[in-house]
Write a structure and sequence with these properties.
heterodimer; A: mainly beta; four-stranded antiparallel sheet; B: mainly beta; five-stranded antiparallel sheet; 57% strand
């Protein structure tokens, strides 16, 4: 296991279409995070899973956004009825249990809504 | 208001020179502080992580310092290389039961020129 992997790396979609991103965390990590990052800004928290349970959701996660982690391993982030404002880098991170454990990030999925 | 502020927003230095990046935070109570390096279009990569009881942590040419009393941290880069050109992000974890979020600064964009 070489790290957190995200798929796809890039996605271009038309406004109004639905998109789904996948994140495969480091296998022994029970914590998984989704972040959104726009140009020149730091990552913004979207949601957090501990195993299969979604424990936190940001108010940034509107009802068009849904995330799942059905078996406590990989996670998906779906955006319905995409808008141009959804264009951003979507980052996934995972870490082990504990307050000081390292958070490892994937390479991100770059979404462009045209 | 962002609870993690970084300065400067951007910095240009000559190859071989040293530089220091600043991070001020208001997250309290505070658990740990991390510095990440993010290359353009890539996910963040961890450089250092310090708990509230640590004052300094080194990783090769990178040295991070922490003053938990003044809620300030700095990242010092020695003998800069062209490959150091990236965004450097300060991330703070709160010490709250059930809080799993990481608070990100907006980053300092460093450009090293030959």
């Amino acid at each position: 296991d070489t790290g957190v992997s995200q798929d796809p790396r890039h996605k271009i979609t038309k406004r109004g279409q639905n998109v789904t991103f996948r994140c495969d965390p480091i296998s022994e990590h029970n914590r998984l995070y989704w972040y959104r990052q726009t140009l020149g800004q730091g990552p913004e928290f979207l949601t957090y899973f501990q195993n299969e349970a979604q424990l936190e959701k940001s108010r940034l996660l509107s009802d068009r956004f849904s995330a799942e982690r059905p078996k406590g391993s990989f996670s998906t982030l779906e955006i319905q009825r995409t808008e141009q404002g959804d264009s951003a880098m979507y980052l996934c991170a995972s870490r082990e249990e504990g307050p000081h454990t390292e958070a490892f990030f994937g390479q991100g999925t770059r979404l462009t809504v045209v | 208001k962002n609870q993690v502020e970084q300065s400067p927003q951007s910095l240009i230095i000559l190859e071989g020179k040293n530089c220091t990046l600043q991070c001020n935070y208001t997250v309290s109570p505070f658990s740990n502080l991390r510095w990440y390096k993010q290359d353009t279009g890539r996910g963040p990569v961890s450089l250092t992580i310090m708990t509230f009881s640590e004052n300094t942590k080194s990783n090769g040419r990178y040295t991070a310092t922490l003053d938990a009393d003044t809620k300030q941290s700095s990242l010092h880069i020695t003998a800069s290389q062209l490959s150091d050109s990236a965004s450097y992000i300060c991330v703070v974890s709160p010490q709250l039961t059930g809080a799993n979020n990481l608070f990100f600064g907006t980053g300092t964009r460093l450009t090293v020129i030959p």
